[in-house]
Amino acid sequence: MQLGVVAVGCLVPGFFLGGYDFTFQAWWAAAYTGVVASAVAFGCMVWAQQWIGPSRTALLLMLEPVFAGIAGAIAGEHLGVGGVVGAALILAGILVAELQRPVTIPDHA
User: Fold this and answer.
1) Closest CA relative to residue 54, chosen from 1, 104, 106, 97
2) Neighbours of 83 (CB within 10 A)
3) Nearest one of 64, 25, 12 to 41, comparing CA atoms
4) Contact 98, 55 (CB under 8 A)
5) Distance of alpha carbon 66 from alpha carbon 88, whole angstroms
6) Are residues 65 and 87 in contact, defined by beta-carbon separation less than 8 angstroms?
7) Of 25, 30, 57, 62, which Cα lies nearest the Cα of 44?
8) How far is residue 20's CA from residue 62's CA, in Å, rounded to a whole number?
9) What pLDDT band is residue 103 in, cutting at 50, 70 and 90?
10) Percent of the chain with pLDDT over 90
């Protein structure tokens, strides 16, 4: 659902902004990435979550931006100080949210 909403949300403005003047290879790469990297990978992830609890899943997913940063650094891109601080704050927020004890709501009925 999310991929569909984002696709439509980006498709419409592109018609008005002239953003579709790409080569066939670029269109093919985008379609392949959209199907393989998004749909298949997301499907595998959802399938695998049957055996892993929600806290462990969240902690594993928290590593996704870490690996993206490492891959970017290997490719020659660098975040800079602001990017590293922002990434660290996001990761810290996820970690704090996942490690705190669940809040229980008392039953007053």
Assistant:
1) 97
2) 13
3) 64
4) yes
5) 9
6) yes
7) 57
8) 33
9) low
10) 7
Indicate the residue type of 43.
G
pLDDT cut 70: percent of the chain above it:
93
Burial class (CB in 10 A: 0-12, 13-18, 19+), 93: exposed
- Tokens linked to 74: 């290997």
**Taking the CB of residue 56, how many other CB atoms lie within 10 A of it?**
12
Max intra-chain CA distance, the chain: 64
Measured between alpha carbons, how far apart are the two ends of the chain, in Å?
A: 37
For 24-84, the DSSP string reads: HHHHHHHHHIIIIIIIIHHHHHHHHTTSS-HHHHHHHHHHHHHHHHHHHHHTT---HHHHH
Residue 102 per-residue DSSP state:
P
